[in-house]
Design a protein that fits this description.
The protein is of the alpha+beta class. The protein has helices spanning about 1-30, 40-55, 60-80, 90-100; strands spanning about 105-110, 115, 130-135, 140-145, 155. It is built from four helices and five strands; from the N terminus they run ααααβββββ. Strand 4 (about 140-145) and strand 5 (about 155) form a beta hairpin. The longest helix has 29 residues, at about 1-30.
Amino acid sequence: MKNKRNGIVILVLFLLTIEIYLIIDLIYKYKGVQQVYILAPIVAVLLYGCFRMLYQNKRENKVGIISVFVITIVICGMTILTRPTYSYKEGRVLVEKYLESSDDSFNEVKNDKMLIPLTNEKQHVLIGQYGYYYKYIDDINELFFIVNPLTGKVSLLEDEFN
């Protein structure tokens, strides 16, 4: 019985490792538009619970093991299913396609802001109301764009966002 319990706990630890990888990957690819930082404390508590269960000799921990397993599966599913449709790089491609219709040649300029707030946009479970922000220039013009990470809608802003 102890080996079965340890096997389940090790499986949960493996799933939590995948979850940690997903969280880091989502922060990098989506530049913080998906608010996975909310899940970090939950994952930390689950990790603590797993290690504690591994080193306890009590048999009556079935409810704890099953609870940790179910919560881990739910968190992995939430993280995967609530991902935005477009990453920051994919948003850049959408802006460049938008600019292809222009006769001018624009170059992207690195800026400090990667996200700016959207207004009147539907908010999903882990996705805040933010859009990807891009700045492009040519010889005389500066263009500022926002891309909705859920819909891929590209909007040209009149002025730089402050």
